[in-house]
Amino acid sequence: MCRMIRNRDVILMSRVLGAMQDIRSVEEIRMKLQDRLWNITRHITGMPGGRGEPKGLDESFAAISEIEERYTQKIEALTRDLREAEDILRTLPESMQTFVVARYILALPDAEIQARLNIGRWRYEKLCERVEQAERMAEVDWPERFALKENFPENPRE
């Protein structure tokens, strides 16, 4: 079943997990490059060879500096998305936060979300429709008539 989603915040929330994973992978690559630079500085004795082209150590520094700048810009963009998502979540009622995080950030199975919110399939579908058809998360008419069974773990795969 294909449903038209009007809520712009849903798109942002669905990008959060990917953004967190991207930041982590960028940081890992950055650390590897820094280790590589350290090793290069220990082993390379080449000097610039004239003709305006960097050689040896200068070439390595230039390449790593360029990569570092690109990664810094990417991390800044991803961090802005994460802050915006956090600000949106902070304004929502607790059960709606649980719903939004489970469905749009962690992408947990519908049955698990229903069990955690202690609701049936019909009610779950109505909540999905309310969230997805509002213009923004703040405009969702969210009923606070159900209790959470337990909080979601930090890592849902544990």
Descriptive account of the structure:
The chain is mostly helical. The protein has one domain. The chain contains 5 helices and no strands. α1 packs antiparallel against α2 and α1 packs across α3. The protein starts with 7 loop residues before the first helix and ends in a 25-residue tail after the last helix.
Strand and helix map with partners:
Blueprint: H1 8-43, H2 56-90, H3 94-105, H4 110-117, H5 121-133
Helix pairs in contact: 1-2, 1-3
Question: Which short descriptors sum up this protein?
Answer:
158 residues; mainly alpha
- Round the Cα radius of gyration to an integer and report it: 23 Å
Whole-number mean pLDDT? 77
* Total strands: 0
Give the N-terminus to C-terminus distance in angstroms. 30 Å
Bin the helical content: 55-70%
Strand content: under 5%
In short, what is this structure?
This protein has five helices and no strands. With 158 residues, it is an all-alpha fold.
